[in-house]
Hints:
This protein is mostly helical.
Amino acid sequence: WFVDFSLYYYGQIHFLRATEVWMSALTISAALIQFLTMGLWARLNERFGVRFVVILGPLLISLASFGMVAATGIAGPARLPVLLVFYVTHAPGAAIVILNMFQCFLEVIGAKNRAMLIAIYSAINVAANALCPVLGMQVFLWMGGDLSAYRLIMTIIGALRLAAGGLFFFRWRLLRGRELTPLSANSTKTQPK
Length: 193
């Protein structure tokens, strides 16, 4: 999820020539939309379940990647408003991922070593948040570091997010109507087949 964080800012500055005002508008609007939609996603989680709602997260987040591809393909002043529309549309997906990924994780771990497993999950998240943006920029530079490389890597990232949404859909279809037995539960319980 974090591989394109630095790439967004790089693209906004170098390819879209965004000013500080535009960058602030993009960031603030996305954060505001995330905050405003958290309650909606919580209600949908209760109605349809975490496994179903999490499908929407990567699908919506992919719009940010495709928004950068669209915006960098437009000449003139319209490209930043186009990017703003994509950012506002992708922001609810980020709220879903933040809210539901951890709940999906909790769904599969048992009480045994729960605190340690949560700490490991958190550490992996923090490490990914620190390392993946650097990796994304490095891959972009290896690809040539120009506009065509930028559009290609953002397309690949968007496609990977769509694939992640597909995997979450597959998981939902596979597990629909089943209660999961946590992996670390006692050995007398069996895993669903």
